User: Fold Major facilitator superfamily (MFS) profile domain-containing protein from Tuber aestivum.
Amino acid sequence: MEKEVKAGQFHGETLAPVCSRDAPSGSPTKNEHTTESVQSDDDQPTEEELNALPRVSDNIPMGAYLVAFIELTERFAYYGLSAPFQNYIENEKDDPLLPGALGLGQSSATALQYFWQFWCYVTPVLGAIVADQYIGKYNTIMVFAGIYALGLLVLVTTAIPEAIDGGHAFGGLIASILIIGLGTGGIKANVAPLIAEQYRSRGPFIRTLKSGARVIVDPNVTIQRLYMVYYWCINLGSLSGIATVYLELKVGFWSAYLLPFCVFFVGIFTLVVGRKYYVTAVPQGSVILCAFKVWLIALKNKGNMEVAKPSYQVANGRRYKTPWPEEFVDELRRSLVACRVFVFYPIYWVCYGQMISNFVSQAGTMETHGIPNDVILNVGALTIIIFIPIMERVVYPALRTIGIKFKPITRITWGFFFASGAMAYAAGCQKMIYGAGPCYDNPRGCLNGAVPNRVHVAVQAPSYALIGISEIFASITGLEYAYTKAPTNMKSFIMSLFLLTNAVGSALGIAVSPTSVHPKLVWTFSGLSIATAVAGIAFWVLFRRYNDTEEEMNAAGREKQQEALRSVAGEMEEGGAV
Assistant:
């Protein structure tokens, strides 16, 4: 029998900070308007049922959809302003073929694009610390949204024709990159864990469908579905690039940046109005500092994290102060698994960064037949929007039905291979461009730059499609892995470490950006393809063993959340609230 905790029945349930020996390291939550499902023991599947019954996702709560919509509007702003950046930076304002403003060339434009990504994915660490230690995820998102809006205003005002003519565009661009990057970092680190936080699970349970069939409602499948929804919304928002590149071409860069500025406020409005629907974790004070102390103790003892447990210290003379509960060390050990898995991601993100940099420049050397050269990058987002429902509703359930457990390490490995394929195809595309006139291996280097090489821009589409498919496997699974392996009160921080791999990848992109010149680009794309394939093989060899312990690690991560929920539900039942 399912018991339901009524909406709005408990508020501000706060536990002591994790560094207190008397405190559990569970998930203190503030639930202001949510519905919790609490299963009785009769619903728990036996070992035989766990192996025999099909697994399905639970229902997704309203709060999760609201958080996903907030991310949609933020990504609308982010990708809407990012799409015109390459042209804005690379081309002259009087370019005969393409829109432009600063005229810094392809290599410099690519380096700045990678710096933009680098900064946007370094700042989540700051946003995570602010949220996990001080003011919580919701308040952090609100504060950094205000910073984000300020950066958008700077970008719009310095992109008007008078500002460009007056030489203010470059300074405005750098200032807006720094301000918006800070804003998006604070939002990005907290929205991703916040959406999964809306789902409060007590573990696998049996549900009888209307057809009479019995299935197991699996929290792992539910979290996977949540991040599918989340990523689908991200890419729906990223289609803003279609509108902004046409505004860039037909009206001007200022209008292309004004649209994201306006839509961003829809997200802020949703964030405020939907406040009562969110489940939010209460910040736990010095938890991150305690985590670093645990890791430091382990480092001093040849990686042995058992030394950091209070029981070990009691038995061995208290060499270190250990003001945290036993299970906190076990949670941190699980989080280190995630951190190890993230090590190879920077190579993947270098490939991903090609979409908004060198691919856009490549399109500018091809025949576009009147469409913006930077509009085709939206093929990647459209691929994701189409294939996420197919994967979530058809492919993954079919694989589970026939007994194939397409676990996270396997999915990530496939993501690397698809990204490698995208780079290999881009190399072939570039070779085709160099083989076509009129300028051959120096595209737009003759006839005053007014004529592109005779290759249709649609040839590029498979590169973007392959990157899009790779994101479904690598990027979505990385978000899922970061959430499920993180200690309950460090979700934002571990998520920010995953996002930090994108920053490292962007730094690598800056390092290789000097090769983004003709006629070297075939080798640039080929090198990235080989490096990503090798990284994918190494990733599989080193980490495939984690597939075997995936369910065990996730179950351990849910245990404290289940204890907290049982405690609250028990208190409410005694008081007649359930």
Remarks:
- Confidence is low (pLDDT under 50) at residues 1-17, 21-42, 564-578.
- The chain has 21 helices and seven strands.
- Residues 409 and 544 are 6 Å apart (CA to CA).
- Residues 2-574 form a domain with the Growth Hormone; Chain: A; fold (CATH 1.20.1250.20).
